[in-house]
């Protein structure tokens, strides 16, 4: 005896399978996509973003001639020695600038972190400490809102061409960045130990060293190492405005229309950034495994 409903079982099964595969939120996803495109389109128009111009005949011809000038890359001993010195200067600018920024960020972090405030223990924070904390946060906003490239342009006018302008530019911008993120890391952690120390008469510094810092040390150091990697990239870029290092050497080579030197410097850019990324990854891995 055959089941009469068997011919209709397969279409019903296929309908159920199709319903199971259908995204239940497809209408919302399409709506959000359309909304994003509507909001993004005026920004694309304002930025005059026209990628198709890269494939126009005159653009392709200019690109081909530009790339052809890279061959062969410059490899004479004198130029390679110059590049090696520029790489060392670039690393020195990044490290010195980050160190100065860190020295400024630490005290500002202690002042900007609400969980380290003795005035807010068991009661609303007093007006004067609250205003002081907002003033410190405003200083951090100002420091990080000005790009390091702009700081470098200003300092080149003050101290002249050379690495000093790059060090000072990184120090100011990264002071604001480190202070902001340090304060957020400290405030997001468990404040029970810190509060207990403050209630029992500990100073702000003591509560930080023995209550807040131990549980957040790994994250703080990991972010600092990441910022050093970013500082290496920034120091390369600032060289184009006369702040020394690889960027300044590449600017000179481009002005002399020496494609071989530019090619060698581009390779060194990639090697330096890859090395900085590798060192940063190794250090963060060592911290996270502790």
Query: Which whole number gives the mean pLDDT?
Result: 79
- What is the CATH superfamily label? MetI-like
Shape: globular
What is the number of independent domains? 1
Gyration radius over CA: 28 Å
* Oligomeric state as shown: single chain
Roughly how much helix do the residues carry, as a percent range?
over 70%
The low-confidence runs, each spanning 5 or more residues with pLDDT under 50, are none
| Percentage beta strand | under 5%
* CATH architecture title: Orthogonal Bundle
Fold-level CATH name: MetI-like fold
Instruction: Give the termini separation.
Output: 71 Å
- The CATH top-level class label: Mainly Alpha
The SSE string, one letter per element, is HHHHHHHHHHH
Describe what you observe in this structure.
The radius of gyration is 28 Å and the shape is globular. The chain has one domain: MetI-like (MetI-like fold). It has eleven helices and no strands. The model has no long low-confidence stretch (mean pLDDT 79). Helix content is 78%, strand content 0%. It has helices spanning 6-21, 26-46, 57-68, 77-112, 127-145, 148-159, 163-188, 192-199, 204-238, 246-255, 259-288. With 290 residues, the chain is mostly helical. Helix 4 (77-112) runs antiparallel to helix 9, helix 5 (127-145) packs across helix 7 and helix 10 packs antiparallel against helix 11 (259-288).
